[in-house]
Design a protein that fits this description.
heterodimer, A: two-stranded antiparallel sheet, 13 helices, 4 strands, 5% strand
Amino acid sequence: MGSRGSHAALIPDADSIRRETGFSQASLVRLYHRFRALDSNKKGYLSRVDLQQIGALAVNPLGDRIIDSFFPDGNLRVEFPGFVRVLAHFRPVDEEDTGTRGPQEPEPLNSRMNKLRFAFQLYDQDRDGKISRHEMLQVLRLMVGVQVTEEQLESIADRTVQEADEDGDGAVSFLEFTKSLEKMNIEQKMSIRILK
Amino acid sequence: MLRAVLPLLGLPLAGAAATEEPTQEPGSPGEPPPGLALFRWQWHEVEAPYLVALWILVASLAKIVFHLSRKVTSLVPESCLLILLGLVLGGIVLAVAKKAEYQLEPGTFFLFLLPPIVLDSGYFMPSRLFFDNLGAILTYAVVGTLWNAFTTGAALWGLQQVGFVAPRVQAAFLDFLLFGSLISAVDPVAVLAVFEEVHVNETLFIIVFGESLLNDAVTVVLYKVCNSFVEMGSANVQATDYMKGVASLFVVSLGGAAVGLVFAFLLALTTRFTKRVRIIEPLLVFLFAYAAYLTAEMASLSAILAVTMCGLGCKKYVEANISHKSRTTVKYTMKTLASCAETVIFMLLGISAVDSSKWAWDSGLVLGTLFFILFFRALGVVLQTWVLNQFRLVPLDKIDQVVMSYGGLRGAVAFALVILLDNTKVPAKDYFVATTIVVVFFTVIVQGLTIKPLVKWLKVKRSEHHKPTLNQELHEHTFDHILAAVEDVVGHHGYHYWRDRWEQFDKKYLSQLLMRRSAYRIRDQIWDVYYRLNIRDAISFVDQGGHVLCSTGLTLPSMPSRNSVAETSVTNLLRESGSGACLDLQVIDTVRSGRDREDAVMHHLLCGGLYKPRRRYKASCSRHLILEDAQERQDKEIFQQNMKRRLESFKSTKHNICFTKSKPRSRKAGSKKKNAVANTAATNGKPPRDLGFQDTAAVILTVESEEEEESDSSETEKEDDEGIIFVARATNEVLQEGKVSGSLEVCPSPRIIPPSPTCAEKELPWKSGQGDLAVFVSSETTKIVPVDMQTGWNQSISSLESLASPPCTQAPTMTHLPPHPLAAEEPQAPLDLPSDSRPSFAFPPSLAKAGRSRSESSADIPRQQELQPLMEHEDHSHLSPGTANSHWCIQFNRGGRL
């Protein structure tokens, strides 16, 4: 515990962060190290460029959007608590979390709804609470690549929107989004084991 | 049951008779050659294949008999029934032939019966699920099997030392280890047979099943190592031999996997070049897989692993390369072979058990083995799961562990291995055989019977069978990308990272190398789901709507002139906008909010799936017209112009409605027009040529089939007389395909929809124009044609009629044609014919027909019709226009009210 304790002491507001995110001490320390490593010139925060320098993110079709999600509301920098808060979405769901939570406490960041909301925001670029056909098309364009033509993409986008669209407004609201995925084990699919 | 037994009863008798015959022949060489025999019985010449075929037949018949009763098969797994049947059959054979015959030979089993099952399971293995759980599967397969083998062997040896096992079982420690190694492996055939019926959740299934497949390598190695140790004698075994044993585990498993992957690569590469010889594609799949199996077997590597890896590795590329039909063929052939082999295995297993000459019973050994395999399996699973759960995202809970321990079924592999033991080296072989048979029977029958109730009782999470939706597919991909990105951010190179890497490597190099260009372009998972959904919708539409088409088709002959067609469409539109079941695109688009999901499905279907066929039907309509009026060239030209105009009107209306695929559609229309033009040009350019209507029909058919399958380009049709026309068109088509790539990929889904008419057309071009097409035309015009199309129709029809009136060929022929195939079914068709000449009477029939066709969607319309006394008459032409008009009013009112 000695070395870990000393490291943990370095993290500002470690306790409140842990309470909010639910991370264990070890993962918090681990993330802090990672944060410091990403922070190229020790400025205490991360900028977009820092994240963009991660090689594999550049080839990830959704890489830019995921980077954007670290910088909500047009911020240009993300401090450690914000960084951890985003990653907390991917903490696996524990049984004891759901049981012990009091009714007045906010939903933990790694709940099913929050995981889904994170994904939803990657689609919903204009933050109007709906995935329009255009936004769907953009995502498809990112993900599908060149081998499928534009018209095909459009028809896929149409169909995808129509499939989930229940109130007939030609867009997918968050509610419709969750409904279209209600059979999927989101808790499992949107979790990374090491982020305990 | 009786039916299954009967051929068998005759079999041994025939066999016995046949075996006696050849003994006489060599005994009498001096006899003069007999004269020409009228009848010769040559059983021994066909004996071997005949027996094989008969056994498979018996097994299949037995399967049919089992499935006659749902109750039995829902309670008892098929494998149990087959084993029991085998016992009965074995008893009969034993009683008749006085010796045990037709047993499960290890050679037959390993060379012929096992490969299809393993290939089937490898090829259809859900690869994503498999790799997601690879860690757990490998642990159970390797550690679990080793654990089971050693503990069971050691415990049995201990039992013997204690004196529980009778001393007549002469076995040393190594013998028990050998026995433990062969009895410990979970058997893929048995597991598959039972678990496929149980429907546990997919994670549990893939772990148990994956383990049973992969532990083969361990079993084979252990078995071989122990066997050679036994043969060497325990005194001669050196320390290096143990090391070699451990090393051979890696050699056998990794070598087997490598062989499989090499063959998978070769197979994928080969299917890349089969564009011209589609017919051998399925064969290639089987041959390469079998070659992989035999190669691995030859090199004494793990053959099961080789075939599994081959199937697993090649599937993605092979599926992309081979044609749709080949894919279906591969699927069904593989399933058939596997099911066949499985059936035969279990039956032969039952028969083999009857042969008591191989048996030597020892209660202590049998009971001890049964107890130990159950106990150590359970213990091993619990221990391993405890370790694995430290690393698993979703831990395996207690119920999963119970099912996993209980699902450790032993089967034919163990039996074949124990039969293979050398009697001289392993003196206790007979005891081991008896024990193995008991263990196999116990696990398959008792555990197989009880696992279903157990699963139900424990409330094990069952697999949820739901159809994939586009949203799920798309979002799943998104999640994968998100997780990979987050792992990057966190700086941990975990599973998602490596999968992402692999997928990029695959995309960049492997797919480029192994998939043909056209396939690679279309092959995207999201696109694939979209494509499959379209097909599914179309199929369900055909299933549901088939009767609608039929009923309209039946009344089509009563349709005298084109006027009524136009009216029908209007009627239908009005009605449909009023009633619930709405087939019209426009209505769905504008009045969308209140619709339920069914309408949305309809909409998708019409939007994505149906519009190509509509064009196709259009073309077929034109074909049948040409087919009729082929005598007079002028008439034909007029018709073609009409058709063109009609096509244009179609196009324009569809432009208004369908917003998505405007570009490919227009191109298609263009090409169709070009076809029409080319057609006329061809007929114009070669006046001396005797152009019977069959010829022209054939010409157009060529184009059709090319649209349907671009791969089957003109080669087959080239042999025909009209080669010049074909070739020209074919190249045209190919060029266009090359240029506009997108449009081609939009059309595959509709292409698939009407397989039966096109297939029939290809074979019998001139027959096609009659029944089916008439039906399609009618359905199209009555159902889908939008309001503003009506003008187009009227235009073309009026011009058509005015032009066609002098020779009096058009109207009669047009009506002449449809009644042909329908007359047999519908006696009223000839009655309707007289009304042809009176267009005004055409109106009501169409109404009545529309009402009839949609009788189940809105029940009150037929009722209204029944209220009118005249409607009871068969012949609708009795109706005066006045009543029809009143009917119209009613319809309007209803529409307004709703």
